[in-house]
């Protein structure tokens, strides 16, 4: 099975938050699909953007780039980016690159949703 076949994105939006669930390999072959989903400004309009990476089996630097771009775009529209990934492959890469000091990282979706909202 190729990386592209393993990769999946689902988006669930409410007025309070946009929840993007990512699974599979987030890499050079698939990160453009995540960027496209996150660039859909018509669909993502909530003040909080939660990207759940718990089901990501592998992530490379292009995946990191997509997350940094997501943070930048969220800030431009006045939203806050929250990642769910305090374990697993995605978290290891985020921690090694020290992006956990820049990005808001939570252990569960419930923790990410319960965090205080953007100012």
TrEMBL record:
Q: Where is the STAS domain?
A: 20-116
Q: Which CDD domains match?
A: STAS_anti-anti-sigma_factors
Xref: PROSITE patterns: STAS
Name the source's superkingdom.
Bacteria
InterPro entries per record = Anti-sigma_ant, STAS_dom, STAS_dom_sf
- A Pfam family matched by this chain, by name? STAS
Q: Its Gene Ontology molecular function terms? A: anti-sigma factor antagonist activity
PANTHER family the UniProt entry points to: ANTI-SIGMA FACTOR ANTAGONIST TM_1081-RELATED, ANTI-SIGMA FACTOR ANTAGONIST TM_1081-RELATED-RELATED
**Family assignment from sequence similarity:** Belongs to the anti-sigma-factor antagonist family.
Q: What is this protein called?
A: Anti-sigma factor antagonist
Show the taxonomic lineage: Bacteria, Bacillati, Actinomycetota, Actinomycetes, Propionibacteriales
């Amino acid at each position: 099975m190729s990386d592209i076949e393993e990769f999946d994105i689902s988006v669930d939006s409410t007025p309070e938050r946009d929840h993007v669930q990512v699974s599979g390999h987030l890499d050079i072959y698939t990160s453009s699909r995540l960027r496209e989903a996150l660039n859909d400004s018509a669909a993502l309009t909530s003040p909080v953007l939660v990207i759940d990476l718990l089901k990501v089996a592998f992530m490379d630097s292009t995946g990191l780039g997509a997350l940094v771009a997501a943070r930048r775009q969220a800030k431009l529209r006045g939203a806050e980016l929250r990642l769910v990934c305090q374990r697993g492959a995605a978290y290891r890469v985020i921690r090694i690159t020290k992006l956990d000091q820049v990005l808001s990282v939570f252990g569960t979706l419930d923790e990410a949703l319960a965090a205080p909202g953007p100012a």
